[in-house]
Specification:
The protein is built from 10 helices and 8 strands. It has 250 residues and is of the alpha/beta class. Helix 1 crosses helix 10 and helix 3 packs across helix 4. The chain is globular and about 60 Å long.
Length: 250
């Protein structure tokens, strides 16, 4: 049985990582486990949002493939595929695979096709695969997950956010992702939003609006896990409802 795959996308700073962490937490709480959490942002921070320590990332493994002696008969790619299982960080209800920039490296790129292959070899063990993306739209083109069940586009409420969400939708469409797999989540909403205008502007169905939540800000400032915010806090409540709606789409 293949898992349901959700890719969380959007422009920088819209709250992808925050929403991803709360979504994973909500899925687990709803009994939809185990979840494979994938941090596909080279600037790894999903682990912090989820409150777990990372010993190694795929980036570290890739670096070792260049600096350590590789077993005879194996090439670098083979070595990465052979070693990457050890990168999985195990937690209650989920495992985390982080792409991650190795300490000290400047320009960094982990081949997306390879990440895709790594996910592919693992995915059968999970009920859900939830991928937190880097900012922008390139990763969609690079296809971390081919044909996800859900592309969740996180946007801020402003006009620029709406335009960016629409562009992401268009790119995903040209890559062949079906329109009925794409959903919009507007985050950091203060005074409510006009649903009709938002859906017309993005050409996406609005699946959730997540309010601006002081508890999220406090956790962020204190360097505490996002999943530690109170159960009744507005953002957490909204993402719980989002998870329920996604269950219908999966
Ligand atoms: P991204 O992963 O898209 O770059 P993050 O999840 O890291 O975005 O969020 C960016 C910033 O916005 C963080 O400081 C985070 O605490 C804050 N933030 C995200 N969502 C909310 C919210 N609903 N309420 C308050 N602050 C939020
Ligand atoms: Mg992020």
């Amino acid at each position: 049985n293949l898992p349901c795959t959700i890719v969380v996308s959007g422009k920088g700073g819209t709250g992808k990582t925050t929403i991803t962490a709360l979504l994973i937490d909500a899925l687990i709480a709803a009994g939809e486990r185990p979840v494979l959490a994938v941090d596909a942002d080279p600037n790894t921070n999903l682990n912090e949002a989820l409150g777990i320590a990372l010993e190694e990332t795929l980036g570290n493994v890739r670096e070792k493939a260049f600096t350590e002696s590789i077993p005879p008969g194996m090439d670098r790619t083979g070595y990465i595929k052979f070693r990457f299982h050890r990168v999985l960080a195990e937690a209650e209800g989920f495992d985390l695979l982080a792409m991650g920039r190795p300490e000290g490296s400047g320009c960094y790129c982990f081949p997306n096709a390879l990440l895709s292959e790594c996910i592919g070899t693992l995915e059968r063990d999970y009920r859900f695969v939830v991928v937190d993306s880097e900012a922008g739209m390139e990763h969609i083109a690079r296809g971390t997950v081919k044909n996800p069940d859900v592309l969740l586009i996180v946007s801020d409420p402003g006009a620029r956010g709406i335009r960016t969400a629409r562009r992401i939708r268009e790119i995903a469409g040209t890559l062949g992702l079906a329109q009925d797999r794409m959903f919009l989540c507007v985050n950091r909403v203060r005074d409510g939003i006009n649903r009709e205008e938002t859906e017309l502007g993005t050409v996406l169905p609005l699946i959730a609006t997540v309010p601006e939540d002081p508890a999220v800000e406090q956790a962020d400032l204190a360097g505490e896990p996002i999943v530690g915010i109170p159960d009744s806090s507005p953002a957490r409540t909204a993402v719980r409802e989002l998870a329920e709606r996604l269950l219908d789409a999966c």
